[in-house]
# Entry
Amino acid sequence: MTLNSYNPDSRYKERAAQRFMSFLRFLAVVMISILVGFWLGRQSGAEQLIVLQDKSKTLTQERDFLQESVTELSAQAQIAETRYQQLQDQVDSIIPKGPMQDIATLVREQLEQGMDPERLSFVIRSARPPSNCSEPDVKRFVLATLANKGPASKVSIADGAIVIEGTGKSARNEKGQPEAWYDPAQPVKIIFNHDGKKDVKRRTLPIRYSVVSGDREYRFTIESGARSFAKVVYDSCDYP
# Structure
């Protein structure tokens, strides 16, 4: 008869050893996975850092370029402003203003009406400072408007040789409705009647004008007066 050598304790120990080895293998896989994931994450972080550094460098370069462009544009704007001011000064020195503008306008009107340029040049060169001038006098007249139903108003000077009249735009009340009187801030129409002709001036007050009647030169300044009225300030001097 043969005896069985089976040992239950040895079998349990082998199973325990197998389970322990399996756990070690699982633990090794987990550790390797963690290490691989860490390594991959580090590599990805490094790549992202490189990309961000490149973007930062590009943005810095673009910022520097924009700053240089702004500086250049600012310098060009200053140069353009200086040049504009120089051109404006040149224009101001060429184009007359004030009385010179009125004289230039009068000369142009005379030439457009057919006056001989040589005759006009002679008259201008023959001009001299006024002499034997009268004291300034003041008259007034009503500027007609579309809303003014009253009679026309005129100013007669030099025994009727010169007659001044005019019209204006109606002033507006708070409701936007037209009033009977004119608005002195708006352009007006002033008519100077003399020697059988009319000289019309359309502009805002004051208006300056001169005319020769007989042996006297009459000089006028039309200003805004009391409501509805235009004030005529004038004097006369020997001519020529």
Notes: The radius of gyration is 50 Å. Residues 8-94 form the longest helix (87 residues). Strands lie at 137-142, 155-157, 162-167, 170-172, 178-182, 188-194, 197-203, 207-213, 216-224, 229-238.
